[in-house]
């Protein structure tokens, strides 16, 4: 069966033919490649077409597809341990690794980024005994009801303002702030300060395309939270172990989040999430405390094994980040140069192996409004052109593309050669 017949058949059994909306390439009006296999920086579809992959499963594949250490860990573990629903040593190993890296006391494993962020919010509310949460426009924290307001990413690409099926009572405690805008945040704190349980932020945003907050903004955000008894949650589901080994903790050393959420990379490509923080907060979780959160599959041995293999590899070989920075710089500079020659106006935001090419006449993209003003028609043409040339990119202006250790100079050259023949 070719891509089209598989996808048409899938549409009969799976809504939209996909298990997560963005994969359908609905905006592009084409059949998505049906992916059969992947190795290193390459993926292959059912028609055996090869693509250099810059999606990387939306972030997790920082070691490339089917990295041998990860494959071995999954294979070996599967021979003796698939699921018990009981404590295992593997959970301890990953928990220790994550706590040491993030400088936190305790962590709880869950099965997805969504679960991590929604549980962190509940914990923050339980700890502070307050109701309101502040999120930033353009940040995505998963599909929990309370977050589906100005949620960027796939929610944005679908053109739906949030989602149907959410009673307004579920979002009445969600306050949306402007990213990189400390005055706006101060106003919000003035209005609601003694009822704000937490502020949740992507410390490097990736879900409105890559947007970096200023150091000043982050430090003031931290101060505002501390002064108002509000917890600060770093949602590092995407940027954790991605922008640097220690994630946003490394980029903003003076900012001390109370809770951190993880996902994506920490599961090595298997379904995983985690949230952690200070002991006095984490010990409010059941069975120790009154905040209930559970999961039949949480801490699954195969997931833990893949996560440990990935995080250990990153820990032992931190020149991985140097390589990613080197090829990232080359790619960024190359695209800028070619764009200039062709009179295509772009802004490129990149932090380590997370990058977005914004098609815009603006000089900078610093928030959701800036991102939304970009030219999605040019983006669509660019995406289709690159896909045709065997370069797999995220199919939206409001997503990050990802680099991995397996991307070579040659892959970057091929990207740039493909981009050279792009015309708007
Ligand atoms: C992907 C993502 C999530 C949601 O994770 P899922 O595993 O898709 O539920 C949450 N927050 C951020 C920042 C993400 O990038």
What does this structure look like?
GO terms for molecular function: glutamate-1-semialdehyde 2,1-aminomutase activity; pyridoxal phosphate binding; transaminase activity. Its main location: cytoplasm. It comes from Clostridium sulfidigenes. With 424 residues, the protein is α/β, with parallel strands linked by helices. It folds into two domains: 3-66 and 318-420, Aspartate Aminotransferase, domain 1, CATH 3.90.1150.10; 68-316, Aspartate Aminotransferase, domain 2, CATH 3.40.640. The chain has helices at residues 3-13, 68-78, 89-102, 113-128, 153-157, 168-171, 182-192, 215-227, 248-251, 279-282, 301-316, 319-341, 368-372, 376-388, 409-420; strands at 35-39, 42-45, 50-53, 106-110, 132-136, 174-177, 196-201, 231-235, 259-263, 273-277, 346-351, 354-359, 391-392, 401-402. The strands form three sheets. The protein has a seven-stranded mixed beta sheet with strand order 4-10-9-8-7-5-6, sandwiched between helices. The longest helix has 23 residues, at 319-341. The protein is globular, with a radius of gyration of 21 Å. Bound molecules: pyridoxal-5'-phosphate.
């Amino acid at each position: 069966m070719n891509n089209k017949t598989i996808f048409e058949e899938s549409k009969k059994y799976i809504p939209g033919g996909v298990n997560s909306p963005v994969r359908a390439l609905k905006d592009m009006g084409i059949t998505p490649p049906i992916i059969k296999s992947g190795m290193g920086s390459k993926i292959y579809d059912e028609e055996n077409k090869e693509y250099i992959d810059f999606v990387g499963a939306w972030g997790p594949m920082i070691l490339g597809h089917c990295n041998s250490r990860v494959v071995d860990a999954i294979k070996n573990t599967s021979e003796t341990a698939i699921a018990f629903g009981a404590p295992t040593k593997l959970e301890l190993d990953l928990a220790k690794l994550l706590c040491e890296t993030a400088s936190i006391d305790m962590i709880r494993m869950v099965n997805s980024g969504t679960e991590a962020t929604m549980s962190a919010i509940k914990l923050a509310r339980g700890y502070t005994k307050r109701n309101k949460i502040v999120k930033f426009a353009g940040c995505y924290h998963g599909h929990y009801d309370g977050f589906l307001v100005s949620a960027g990413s796939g929610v944005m690409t679908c053109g739906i303002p949030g989602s149907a099926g959410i009673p307004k009572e579920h979002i009445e405690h969600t306050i949306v702030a402007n990213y990189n805008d400390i005055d706006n945040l101060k106003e919000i704190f003035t209005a609601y300060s003694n009822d704000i349980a937490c502020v949740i932020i992507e410390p490097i945003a990736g879900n409105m395309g890559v947007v970096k907050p200023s150091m000043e903004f982050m430090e003031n955000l931290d101060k505002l939270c501390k002064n108002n008894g509000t917890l600060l949650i770093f949602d590092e589901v995407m940027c954790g172990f991605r922008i640097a080994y220690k994630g946003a903790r490394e980029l903003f050393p003076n900012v001390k989040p109370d809770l951190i959420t993880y996902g994506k990379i920490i599961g090595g490509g298997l379904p995983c999430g985690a949230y952690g923080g200070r002991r006095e907060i984490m010990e409010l979780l059941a069975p120790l405390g009154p905040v209930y959160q559970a999961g039949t599959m949480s801490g699954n041995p195969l997931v833990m094994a893949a996560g440990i293999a990935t995080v250990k590899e990153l820990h032992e070989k931190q020149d991985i980040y140097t390589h990613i920075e080197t090829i990232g710089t080359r790619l960024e500079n190359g695209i800028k140069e070619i764009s200039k020659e062709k009179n295509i106006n772009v802004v490129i935001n990149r932090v380590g192996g997370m990058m977005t090419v914004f098609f815009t006449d603006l000089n900078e993209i610093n928030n959701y409004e800036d991102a939304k003003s970009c030219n999605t028609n040019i983006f669509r043409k660019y995406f289709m052109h690159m896909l045709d040339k065997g370069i797999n990119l995220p199919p939206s202006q409001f997503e990050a593309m990802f680099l991995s250790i397996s991307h070579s100079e040659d892959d970057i050259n091929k990207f740039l050669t493909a981009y050279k023949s792009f015309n708007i």
